[in-house]
Structures
1.
Amino acid sequence: MATLVLLRHGESEWNAKGLFTGWVDAGLSAKGEEEARRGGRLLSDAGVRPDVVHTSLLTRAIQTANLALGAADLLWLPVTRSWRLNERHYGALQGKDKAQTRAEFGDEQFMLWRRSYDTPPPPIADDDEFSQAGEARYALLPEELLPKTECLKDVVERMLPYWYDAIVPDLADGKIVLVVAHGNSLRALVKHLDKIDDDAIAGLNIPTGIPLVYELNDDFTPVTKGGQYLDPDAAKAAIEAVANQGR
Ligand SMILES: O=C(O)[C@@H](CO)OP(=O)(O)O
């Protein structure tokens, strides 16, 4: 049996402003910093002590990992980072206000872009102020792999190689693995773990800063579908809030 802990970063400055964020490198808000610390305390209170950590390359996930690990007195843990755990690239919607986008394009189109499995937003132009073209952080990434937009299906496809090549080997070694990532990269991972179908995944939202613990069987399938949030009541309220963004 193996233990996997998923943690979405705390509230970012852009979450607080209601903007589509994607690969834009927004930092945590003061509330998000506190959520991250609380996530670390929830882990230690529950006696869940990760052995290794995986994060995306985005500041809000890295800050969250650091704050949570600091609160759990685990800042010394080995950490590996990958672009494959990044948030979904939101294409030309990056930097746009969610409520305004919904008002302009209507509820159906807004939800298609936000939660459908295979409809990506329009691609972002390289000269858009919110494009990642030329960012030093992705200098080692071949140009054809740097997304200009992604739907959740694209995220599943670019995330799974990291799951199988980097995370599963740690789990197979008997390590408790903490993955600190994003709303949509974690939705992609949960879709895979819980075998959620392409339509039903639209209804799954992940709250900021609350650890989600999965016990896994020897074949890395969940013992209990959906795992267990360490603060289920807070998770329920926060999931509702994520679902209602832009309204
Ligand atoms: O803007 C984003 O990048 C994501 C996560 O904050 O938003 P949404 O929940 O709308 O997919």
2.
Amino acid sequence: FRCEQVKLKKCFANTNAIKTSKYNPFTFLPLNLFEQFQRIANAYFLFLLVLQVIPQISSLSWFTTVVPLVLVLTVTAAKDATDDIVSKCVLCTISPLRSEKWMDVQVGDIIRLENNQFVTADLLLLSSSEPLNLVYIETAELDGLVYFFSFHSEYNLKPAVRCEPPNNRLDRFTGTLTYAGQKYPLDNEKILLRGCTLRNTEWCFGLVLFAGPETKLMQNSGKTTFKRTSIDRLMNVLVLCIFGFLAFMCTILAIGNCFWEMNEGSQFMVFLPRQDGNNAAFSAFLTFWSYVIILNTVVPISLYVSVEIIRLGNSFYIDWDRKMYFSRYNTPAEARTTTLNEELGQIKYIFSDKTGTLTQNVMTFNKCSINGKSYGDVYDYTGQRLEITKVNTVDFSFNPLADPRFMFHDHALVEAVKLEDPEVHAFFRLLALCHTVMAEEKKEGELFYQAQSPDEGALVTAARNFGFVFRSRTPDSVSIVEMGEERSYELLAILDFNNVRKRMSIIVRSPEGKLCLYCKGADTIIYERLHQSCSKLMDVTTEHLNEFAGEGLRTLALAYKNLDEEYFNQWKQRHHEASTELDNQESKLDELYEEIEKDLLLLGATAIEDKLQDGVPQTIEQLSKANIKIWVLTGDKQETAENIGYSCNLLREEMNDVFIVSGNSPEDVRQELRSVKRLYHFSLDST
Ligand SMILES: Nc1ncnc2c1ncn2[C@@H]1O[C@H](COP(=O)(O)OP(=O)(O)OP(=O)(O)O)[C@@H](O)[C@H]1O
Ligand SMILES: [Mg+2]
């Protein structure tokens, strides 16, 4: 790899420095003091201190106030300082083999990253130590999930890059790279975002595209606002009331003093003469301030400190809580802030993801429907469904490449594969070809799959065991072993998955030279794009799909289509033009995809099980007893989602007023909510 400084026009930002901490050593004292004196009590004691230095008023010596005030300020400052020490510094190498602090990295620099290093800017991947320039990254910081992504990149020469302006969309990137007059499309797959960590990859080189506050991660983090808890607010109100009370008492006492001066003051002078005579009003004024000092103990300065200390202790209890310790990943609960603990008890709403949060994210291929026949349930000779646990698992020993951990119980499917049923073969061929899984073969015959989505991993593994083994891929071919025979398919296009399209397709040329498009995706989406000739098969498959979804399984429909060479070449040309375009790239690609993904022929459907995590139903039950409202987000088919809702106690039998809002525009949704409201006479939150 040649390290050359890239001449890139700097349209956006400059250095990678990001301020994640509030203070630095010089600003700490003034800033922190300023913040602390915004608290009423602290400001009050400062004011008191000023009063105490005036000898006419003061009856107490000044240090009676200074000591507690300084104590309070230091304790709080110490706590703030420890909360603030977070930012770390990572070193990386810049061409030509220079070491720099990551905060000095600039747009256009080429960076070398090493395994387990944190990616500190948005990079265009140039090359890596792995075959095909693959990189594995962990994206836990970005989306809270731990999984591996794979990237490939084929550029390793002086490029010029044009790309979209900085934005906060983590799942999208458009740009072009020009080299030697050739334009290459750049997409999300070739970008490493700040916030991920390099894994299983010795090294990689990347070109900095966005740095510092322009990185997608930083564009996503909103302004940090100072959060106040309701106890804070209550304390402020209480302290204000106490002030009112104090002022009231001092006023009464000052008025009393005024009367006393007028009536008795002159006689008192005999006994303790005063130089400036007796001025009742002025004396009352001074008395007022004296009492402000004398009665200072009414204002509980220690209240704030006590609450802070209680919170600190409380956060230790959270960290130490054994019931919140997850031994499998060795993760205890962690209180990231010490100021908001008590709000935990005030939670009203929980927003949760389904896959991987409620469920284990361990997908198993359970059932399928191929050409109108359902596989997966096992029946005895009288037609009774048998308990899966009582049936022998299928023996895959005919296939030396099978994954030994894969289990399946229905022998009929293996029989169908062995009898060379063409639909069954096409079904598994599709599963082996249409995906974005990467294969690793460390030893001959020992395959490991790295899948971005665990569903795909499960499907490819299923195909592998039934004799359609996905073996390896390059940017323009996919090699599979079909029933023992090695075949390489030329990969012509990947029409990638996103959550709007809800489907993915690939276009391949078989070793015999036939062009074919394979598509898998959500059943509703696939059904809209099927050829009329499969309407009968559609009805049967729909029944199977509903059955699968009724058991809470995640379903996908599979379809294919043979393509005409001439049409495809012309389509491919338009596809290339669209993908190197900067504006409207996405909508143009979508149109092209839409055009080619129609008149498909249905093959069947798959059903994948993702079990609930331990204790989920119990937890949800307890939460709903506490009157906490729970929202769960999922992209599953409606029936599957409802079913899982029932199995995790989110929906319960006694809830007979469950209703579905299926509108796609704000107006539709509002309309539907209104009609439901009329029907059930309940009140909707204004949200
Ligand atoms: N790899 C894939 N290939 C084709 N279609 C897919 C793929 N993954 C999901 N789908 C389809 O797209 C739909 C939306 O999936 P998406 O992954 O966006 O949902 P999600 O929000 O991740 O939901 P969940 O958290 O339940 O997985 C799914 O219901 C499924 O039918
Ligand atoms: Mg998903």
3.
Amino acid sequence: MALLSANHLKKSFGKKIAVKDISLQIDPGKFIALLGPNGAGKSTTISMLIGTLAPDSGNINFDAKIPNAQNYHRHIGVVFQESVLDGQLTVRQNLTFRAKMYKNITTHRVEDVLNEFQLLTVADQKYQTLSGGQRRRVDIARAILHRPALLFLDEPSTGLDIQTRNMIWQILNRLRQNEHLTIVLTTHYLEEAENADFVYIIDDGHVIAADTIPKLKATYAPTRLTLITSTPDLVRKNLPADLPITRTKTGLSIALSNSMASIPILKLIRPLISSFELRNGTVDDIFLTLTGKEIR
Ligand SMILES: Nc1ncnc2c1ncn2[C@@H]1O[C@H](COP(=O)(O)OP(=O)(O)OP(=O)(O)O)[C@@H](O)[C@H]1O
């Protein structure tokens, strides 16, 4: 049973149709990415999923364990693009204040989370004096304090350096493993979507593809074997006729399902080529194939 499913969501702001038709399903324990360029409709979708914006049409269904909207917010954590914390309060005060909004969150839990997010050294520093990466860690710490089943992250890495991004993902992956946390991420960082269990590619208010990364790559961004040769016709004659081969300036290019499939091919034509190149498909290639444009 899906934790959450959305069917044919649509949302306009005046004449602007931000979300035209988005359906998606969030299964427990999974890491789901909504990938798309600026303005694709990701944040608007998240706002509808978390209940802060009502769709014009379409519906959202919750798992039976989350019977009504009042209960729903206890099961979710949200990290918004803009922080919702008080800059004048310290990190510890912000988290303690948040903890008081829930029953059963002990001081011990606040300290554990500070420790988990490596924030103890800045715990008594005002939030507004923190670096961007430290702030983001506090934002996420706030969002998971009440142990939500489902965490929404709206472009959490924008503007962060690679070390901070890696650190945040180490913590999130630990939470996924230890607490079975389900994550819904919006991003335009292709490398971030690469680790997701399932990806919805969104463009211009629509889901234009939805699948696992390996399946999306196989369909829209195959591994490509490029053969450098001065005798392309001869090489072609020596290869199975059903291979998807195209001519290039310097030889031939073959689309493959995976890199291992190149081995028998290379064995067949080894004496006829001067060199070869093997390139695995990327998430970038998927987006390019689907939309004809780069994501950023
Ligand atoms: N409150 C609003 N009023 C008018 N237009 C809006 C409003 N919110 C969003 N839009 C428009 O709807 C479209 C989708 O916006 P949305 O923020 O959902 O996209 P996004 O994919 O999250 O983009 P980004 O990655 O830049 O956050 C954009 O063209 C945006 O300008």
4.
Amino acid sequence: MPDTAAIPVLTIDGPSGSGKGTISRAVAGRLGWHYLDSGALYRAIGVAAGWADLDLADPAALVRCAFDTEIGFREADGEPRVIVNGVDATDELRTETAGAAASAIAAIPEVRFALKERQRAFRRAPGLVADGRDMGTVIFPDAGRKVFLTASAEERAERRYKQLKDKGVSVTLDGLLREILARDARDASRAVAPLRPADDAVRIDTTGLGIETVVDRVLALMEP
Ligand SMILES: Nc1ncnc2c1ncn2[C@@H]1O[C@H](COP(=O)(O)OP(=O)(O)O)[C@@H](O)[C@H]1O
Ligand SMILES: Nc1ccn([C@H]2C[C@H](O)[C@@H](COP(=O)(O)OP(=O)(O)O)O2)c(=O)n1
């Protein structure tokens, strides 16, 4: 295992729709750093488990699935794509069904353990921006900068509503708000690596803030 401790890491954690993916990608682009979308790993395991018809109540099968599933990230026409066992699963991964399955399997401690080293392997020079729920608390506790993004549940549901509508997915605002609240509750109440800010994280409430403002605030934290 190469010693990667000297490679800088910025962690960006927070609940669904707080803007982690958008802000992390933009900041990684501006810094020229690598990017880890840890949620995509949990979503990919959930989707692969569905393809294999695994029982979401069978932890042993899900852990095998977490170790065996091949997950690759690539860009096509400037858009990030996620390849699961050789199949481009990007669109399926972004559905709320995949998000709920990811949140359910993410509560299994052995599944989290199975993904630990895979996530740490993303720490490569010149640096890494890591987005998720436990990047600052569990996966990269030694990160030099940690951010915890929040926004009101209503605003997060509205952002998701717009995002899915733009993709032509039929959803209701009420339904999304319910799903977001249910996922927040499950992610924050699980016994292992619950959603919570690291003690040394800077919290940014993005309610009412535009994307560029949040990107600038995070970049300002990176100044020496
Ligand atoms: N500060 C912000 N203001 C308004 N919209 C935002 C903001 N941050 C993100 N968004 C939009 O909200 C949606 C969800 O953001 P996303 O990055 O997918 O959140 P997360 O990864 O936390 O679930 C996207 O369509 C994104 O463009
Ligand atoms: N580091 C992580 C990332 C995601 N998860 C789980 C919990 C989340 O509800 C699901 C999906 O995460 P993802 O970040 O893709 O979801 P959102 O974009 O925030 O809606 O995976 C986790 O437990 N730990």
